[in-house]
User: What shape does this take?
Amino acid sequence: MKKQETIVSREEIERQYGFMHEIRMLPHRPETYYIVTYGCQMNAHDSEKLAGMLEEMGMTPAPSREESDFVIFNTCCIRDNAERRALGNITWLKEVRKTRPNLMIAVCGCMIQEPGMAEKIMKQYRFVNLAFGTSNLYRFPELMLQALNSMESTVVVDDGEPVPEGLPVRRLRHDAAYLTIMYGCDNFCSYCIVPYVRGRERSRDPGSILKEAEDLLKSGIQEIMLLGQNVNSYGKGLPGNPSFAGLLSDLDRMGIPRIRFMTSHPKDLSDDLIDAMACGKHILPQFHLPVQSGSDRILKLMNRHYTREKYLERVKRLRDAVPGIGLSTDIIVGFPGETEEDFRDTLDLVREVRYDSAFTFIYSPRTGTKAAGFSDQIDPDVSSRRIEELIALQESLQKETMKRFLGQEEEILVEGLSRRSEHEISGKGLHGISVTTGGYNEDIGRIIRCRITGLKNNTLTAERI
Ligand code: SAH
Ligand code: SF4
Ligand code: F3S
Assistant: This one.
């Protein structure tokens, strides 16, 4: 059984609340904060936890980073460009600091958790007041107090793998919420840095998850997005071995209007999960199933533990069980050793599956991962040409696949006014696709019914019913 001592004790969380209240009383603390978030939903949700803690310390959000007393960069390092963007923006703040000497700057998130990165920040970005890793997030109040009371920078990066419960959260949306069900990842796909910066896989106790969901439901939430790097393996190591399918069914019975989740690893996509989706009343008919490559040879080198055939079989089973299901994926091109033939296999797979959307990436070597050491890295020009071809193919197919929605009824959760007009709203439909229709400000946060009438780029247009 997995170590349960990763759960942060109640006393420790209370100690952190003590620091938050101590900071609230400090005369020299910042009044306002601004968080810049990079990366995935995990980071977005971590930023909501940071905001929750900052508000408990008495701070309020600033309208822009230039006007803020305290700027936090919550960084991502999944690809080189994510990292460069974060470092570039941090450097830019150095200029702002020249006119605002009291501006406080913190850097946290996955990039800080990379070996040697904290030291690099200390040396090259000396104006940063505070840097801490993903495993130290729950200790942010303590570290913040330390930074406020010191002229020196505070830098803390632990290897711990905590599961903190009971931290304050300030959610960005009132209608839709992230709910973490597991942290970390054990899969070690050979290209991926996540297991190194987010630690080993650990699942939250089902009781805590259900309690959080119940509180969200009481607060009037319309949609919950369950988060984990590989939600399909939820429960591994917990007493009684709870499964993701079981958790999903429990949440479905609770009556939350819409439930979504990400991300699923194809190797752990069980029949039970597919059945739970088919039987559920509130689990949305959409699935994000990253394939990464259509070539068995590359999948093996990627350490993905499934074949193209197995993947296609899972897709078929999903579509049989949940007809019309919205399918999306992630694909990497230019993985070391990827031949023209391997790439053609990927294009073929995309043609065969017909995804509703695909996130496509050029392979980016990450220090410390296995694939970074592979000798046959691909020429960047070849990768660029491949990704363009892939994107063009996906776009042309997408136009066709989206036609299946024409004339159908949809329910959308309204996210905001559309960019084009004040009398138009947009939101996500049941299948995970953006839909725009007529509406106003007061519709935001509501679920509305409409009928799909057309396609525009990657969105659907609709008439209200
Ligand atoms: N746990 C999820 C998401 C991981 S990160 C999963 O397994 O799908 C999101 C996507 O980034 C991955 O699916 C992969 O397509 C891409 N990615 C990860 N590492 C990468 C790298 N080194 N280079 C390019 N793309 C990468
Ligand atoms: Fe990275 Fe693979 Fe884990 Fe996803 S499953 S986070 S791609 S190691
Ligand atoms: Fe990036 Fe960390 Fe997410 S590396 S993609 S923010 S888990």
The first strand starts at residue 32 and ends at 37. The radius of gyration is 23 Å. The chain has three domains: 4-156, 176-401, 406-464.
